[in-house]
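Need residues for this backbone.
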């Protein structure tokens, strides 16, 4: 909801650096957006795509359910990466 209120802030307002890196790798860009235009709204759409949103021209904006699914999946992936980094270091 904060991305709808003010879409220009940096993604670090709501996401960690690890989550931004995960989203950049898992949800490929459909448009050729440069690094300066990658704000919170850009990453909110990537999160919803993890939750099943297709991001077609005719689709309505994503809702809370799709955002929740995407955030849940992103949290699980980030937790897995953190645990794997600890286990590999042994």
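Answer:
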């Amino acid at each position: 909801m904060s991305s709808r209120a003010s879409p220009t802030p940096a993604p670090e307002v709501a996401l960690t650096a690890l989550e931004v890196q995960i989203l950049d790798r898992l949800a490929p860009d459909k448009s050729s957006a440069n690094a300066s235009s990658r704000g919170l709204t850009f990453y909110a759409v990537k999160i919803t795509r993890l939750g099943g949103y297709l991001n077609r021209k005719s689709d309505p904006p994503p809702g809370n359910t799709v955002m929740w699914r995407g955030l849940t999946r992103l949290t699980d992936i980030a937790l897995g990466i953190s645990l794997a980094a600890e286990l590999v270091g042994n």
